[in-house]
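Researcher: Go.
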Amino acid sequence: MATQIARGRELLVWYGSFYAVATVGCLGAFLKSRNSAAIVPLIPLGFVLGYQYDLAYLNKIPRIRGMAEDIMHDEMSLMALPEGLPSLQTIDAARLKK
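Model: Structure:
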């Protein structure tokens, strides 16, 4: 878990740097052309940056863990195997077919 958090923080550094360069480029293009379409890419990039920040430094991981626990507790049918659990006999029969 700590490795995943560290990976998210490292990814945030790279993505934040990309976002900063993209912001400078988009603002430069906007100031040069006065076309508001030049800054539109900053909107989805901002959402992604916010998600990465939430994942790396805020409480996204505990929220995800809580949702996973709720699914395991309340919606167990979503995790059931389509044919049910295999029995020893079906495993042996499948093994002997080979």
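Model: The CA atoms of residues 77 and 84 lie 11 Å apart.
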